[in-house]
Structures are given as structure tokens and as C-alpha cells.
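[job 0412] stage=fold_complex status=start
inputs:
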Amino acid sequence: MPTPVVAGNWKMNTTLDEAQRLASEVRDGTGSDVGCDVILCPPFISLQAVWNAVAGSQVKVGAQNMHHESSGAFTGEISPPMIQSLCDHVLLGHSERRQLFGDTDQTVNLKVKAALAHALRPILCVGETLEQRESGRAQEVVANQVREGLSGVEDITRLIVAYEPVWAIGTGQAATPETAEEIMGGAVKDTLSALFGDAASEVPLLYGGSVNPGNAASFAAQPSIHGGLVGGASLQADQFLEIVRVVAEAKV
Ligand code: PGA
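[job 0412] stage=fold_complex status=done
writing structure:
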């Protein structure tokens, strides 16, 4: 079984000072035998501060996005070599990027390949909208996002996949653990296995969408769920640390 993972996606929250404080609180609350990979994904501007704050601890750092090119005339963008020394992970294809900022399966695929080429662990985010779920297409949509996102990728040993149904993000309406398991043990796992064989079983699969300290254990209890990608609840150190604790415990 893959090492469990709990990642906090801070989105467009925290000033530099707040990010530093939150990272320090998470660092102080994370023991050396935490039993789970803990990843903080602050805004770009705070990557350096968070990287310094967690240096020497078990806590890892991720960016929330990046461009796939290494440099060039892309005003406002951040490239893999720029973040490479400040983080070890990068969220790619988050639904907010797909819905609000034009990320497509094709651009997400370019970013996944760029992340791997720069020794970053990509956290590929997939998930269906409410409309897609209601029209019975959830499995198909997610399977496609996994397939397209990984097109041309040969080695998935550094990959993490997060299933985040769009209708469950930031709504307080988490999927049921059974619904999440259906997709993660179905579309996600089946597609990874069809493409990569046995290597698929070592890819950590995270559920995301209104994860909180009260529901995290029930997600982690599912066989195809190895952890969580946490938005809102990752902005409070005590809540985030409690999620880390219950996920590690459920996965022992
Ligand atoms: P949420 O966000 O936990 O606030 O629903 C999850 C995410 O978007 O990664």
C-alpha cells in the first residue's frame, strides 16, 4: 500500500506572515513518526517562507500550479525551475484551475510531464461536475481526465492522484465515502492499472472535497483511498493536524 498522504491546499489564502505562522504550527504539531506524508501547498509568494519554516521536519511543500515551460514570455506565470528549489510537490489540474483559468486535459498533461522532468511530484487532480454526475458520466469523465492527464507519461512512481468531485469542493457537502470509493476504486484505479500495470497499486489516491476532522477517518477507511486533499480545513492548524492524525491511524 502507498504511504498515506494528507495535503493542505491553502488556495488564495494567507499573507506571508500568516503562511509562516500556519506552517510553523503544522510543523510543531507533526511528530517524527507521523505515519503519513504531510504536504502544505501555500500561494507561490509564500513557498520560500513555508519551505524555510518546515526545513528539517517531516512536513513537505507543494505549489498549487505552474506553467509547463521553463522560461519565456508568459507574463504572470511561474515555471518548474523557479519552484524546484522551494517545494517537492505541485498540484496540477485542480478544478478551480480548470474551471476559472482555462486549464485543459492537454495543458494539465504538459504540466504533469514538466513536473516529472523537474523532479517534482505531481498531484494530478480529477473530478466530475454535478451535471456530469447527474447525467451518469462521472466514471467516464474521471477516467478520461486520468488518461489524458498522463498521456505520454512512462513512469508513475512519483505520481499522486486526487479525486475531487467539483460539487463537493468548498460546499460542505462531501461525497459519501462509498461514492468516493466507487470512483477511486473504479475509474481512477482501473485506468491507472490499464495504462501502467502493477505500478498503479503504489500511487497514493487522495479524496478531496469538504474533508474535515469529522469525516476524514471514514474516507481513509476505504480500500482505494490513501489520504486527503484538504482545502478549507487546512487553514486551521488544529483541524488539519487532526485530519493527519485520523488518516494515519486509519491506514496503519
Ligand atoms: P475544500 O477544498 O476542502 O475546501 O472542499 C478542497 C480542494 O479544493 O482541494
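[job 0412] summary: The radius of gyration is 17 Å.
[job 0412] exit 0
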